[in-house]
Amino acid sequence: MKELKNLMGFRESIRVVDATLRDGGLVNEFRFSDEFVRALYQTNLRAGVDYMEVGYKADRDIFDVEQYGKWKFCDDEEVRKVLDPRDDRLKLAVMADVGRCNFRRDIRPKDESPFDLIRVATYAHQIPGAVEMVEDAKEKGYEVTCNLMAISAAQESDVRVALEMLCRTPVDTLYIVDSFGALFPEQIARIAELYMEFAEKYGKKIGIHAHNNLQLAFANTIEAIGDGVDWADATYAGMGRGAGNCPMENLLGFLRNPKYEFYPALQFCSSQMLKLKEDGVKWGYDWQYLATGLQNEHPRSAIAFTKADRRDYLEFYRELVVHD
Amino acid sequence: MKELKNLMGFRESIRVVDATLRDGGLVNEFRFSDEFVRALYQTNLRAGVDYMEVGYKADRDIFDVEQYGKWKFCDDEEVRKVLDPRDDRLKLAVMADVGRCNFRRDIRPKDESPFDLIRVATYAHQIPGAVEMVEDAKEKGYEVTCNLMAISAAQESDVRVALEMLCRTPVDTLYIVDSFGALFPEQIARIAELYMEFAEKYGKKIGIHAHNNLQLAFANTIEAIGDGVDWADATYAGMGRGAGNCPMENLLGFLRNPKYEFYPALQFCSSQMLKLKEDGVKWGYDWQYLATGLQNEHPRSAIAFTKADRRDYLEFYRELVVHD
């Protein structure tokens, strides 16, 4: 059981990462207005958020630039146009997927870019690619995190090998990523214990990125924090792929470090996030995501169900579990 | 940390209570159609639910019968008209509030009533009234539980005294009730430890009734189960006062005892509960409930905000925290 003192006091080492533009961008093809992004930046500053992830460094040779907003590609110049001048208290992050980013070309040395942190995202079978990207980003002067995705569907022995390989790189923080939103807090506790074992041995930090398929994104995030995980991802109104993420406003309401402020988060939700919802952008917990979460499956079928405006949840569930 | 074996295996002693009509009734003035109630009963049977709470035994001298559906009063005859014949595998429960129920008149001996279980609900300052009702119900032949409400706002020393007094009655099960939806899982763990201490000493069972103000109703329920709490309340689609309760479909998806079935729950949600939502019955997590939950306040102001169709969340929060 976690201790009362952990709940009443706080750890200085906690870091909050706003992933609204990045994970939320998966919902609306990264079509955020400049005004929205600037308001988000100011909100994060006032709320004491430590990092703002503004999107992906996606490879233009793979993804059609016409199909997405600019936060899918996050050109250094485009980001500067919207967010300069910046404030040192809020660092900027960008995500780069193994195999979907031309990192040698598109990630410039840190002193030439607006970014402080490169977040490498990898599946367990792509670790050598992730190692290469971590080393490249470190050489270019960045802080580097690595998100090991979809671990609820990976073999624990594979995860151990992956952690061992990643810990031998200069990566700063390794993330527990519940891509399918399939994990219960008890499992998060055990996984955190495993990651912390490596973190302590190699001097790394651990992070948590949760999804809300089971209505447990917030619960799993604070479970992980109680287990010693220092980095926590959240998004305003929980905006993110499918069932969405841990809501920033809940996380800020939970954290006891007085640098974190709930009020600006609620202000942003009640103005900007409410408007997105009213404009028809759809994300968040619903029964189709519960179904894929309980099945420990990628939510793509549930996302398609949502996009098609279907309401026949039972038929969806049958499609999911009835295989020939 | 709770053990893997608890998650993969199951405890035979777990009991699931469907509180849809009772806590959900607080949302729609207990106006459920007979067809809805019968479908709910059949769903609970198929899903392996152990108890179905059908409403309140409210005092007609206090509450206007014109203002509510019949599940507010749960006359034995009215309940029989809708639910006979019954099946022994699914027991019927009814709630009686201290000070709002004429229990001597309205609760008949068990062999004359359709009910198996009387659920006495009390605040910490009403314990002598609760003791009287527990003893009366036991004498009449019922199983009896006692819900000690709003404990997040009670002094721990008062809770100890209340538990001591209630444990000396013949009550079977004592409930942890987070009426304000203000508790985090770490707090649930500590409260469960306190209740379990009394339970072990006096041979009682412990139950959990959670609210979803912080998006933690499901998380707090499974936290409590992991801590040794055997009785868990849930409602379909989480229907209940304000932010609602632990969703039955999530709980059934979590429990590993093969007697509990997820499929009938989803079927009921996608037919009956979806219809209620589409008809405009409003409940469930939203920012106004997060605000009262974080403030550890009764959600009545948030419920009024919801009923008034207000969307000015920030102004609501100001009203909540700015006092002269």
Explain this structure to me?
The structure is a homodimer of 324-residue chains. Chain A is globular and about 55 Å long. The termini of chain A are far apart. In chain A, helix 8 packs across helix 9. Chain A has helices at 4-8, 20-28, 34-47, 76-83, 103-106, 127-139, 156-167, 185-202, 217-226, 248-254, 263-278, 287-294, 300-307, 313-321, and strands at 15-18, 51-56, 91-97, 117-122, 143-148, 173-177, 205-209, 231-234. Chain A is built from 14 helices and eight strands. Chain A has two domains: 4-278, TIM Barrel (Alpha-Beta Barrel); 287-321, no CATH class. At the A-B interface, helix 1, helix 8, helix 9, helix 10 and helix 11 of A face helix 1, helix 8, helix 9, helix 10 and helix 11 of B.
